[in-house]
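Protein modeling request. Please complete all fields; requests missing the sequence field cannot be processed.
Requester role: graduate student
Desired output: 3D structure, token encoding
Chains: 1
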Amino acid sequence: MSEKELLVQAMKDGDLDTSLRLAHRVVGEKTPALEVVGALIQGIREIGEAFERFDIFLPEMMLASNAMIEILKVFEPKLKAESPEAQTISGKIIMATVKGDMHEIGKNIVITLLKANRFDVVDLGADVDSLEVIKAAEREQAQLIGLSALMTTTMLGQKEVVDILNDMKIREKYKIIVGGAPTTQEWAARIGADGWAKDASSAVALAEELIQRKGVA
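Delivered output (217 residues):
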């Protein structure tokens, strides 16, 4: 196995020490950071699928998720260095997992790729109240809001943010992106969001498109 493959396996095993040791080795190699991150994303998807099949349980999934988060921190500077400035767009985006939802791994992957593309990202974490999202967007003078929901029971948190912005008559100030396993383009349209991203790469492309549409770039 290559060191990249060993890194992915260590992440899937939830072995943080081995993951970090290998990450620091792999980040110094010539392999493009996006290629490595792509392999890691596939690995964490496999962990999620195994959890859904009850092949593994929550503690194992959380260990793998935590390892993934720490590995991404190691690769963040290389991702930034490899991103051609001519193809990147600066903008500020608030990122949060909505109220009642503790899942962060998907959001954190999106954040890493956004930062690699020179977005200014404010991460509010998980289980974030809708009003706190809006207060942060106002305080930080953001152009975009990204909302993640990984459970059907928490999807309404995304709608709540849009509804509050409408009630406050400041909806037009922000472009809103929603994502997460149970969400769809139809759901985004139904709640009045500006777009839906099925994965991390499409989230970055959508953010770039929306920033251009707002005339921020």
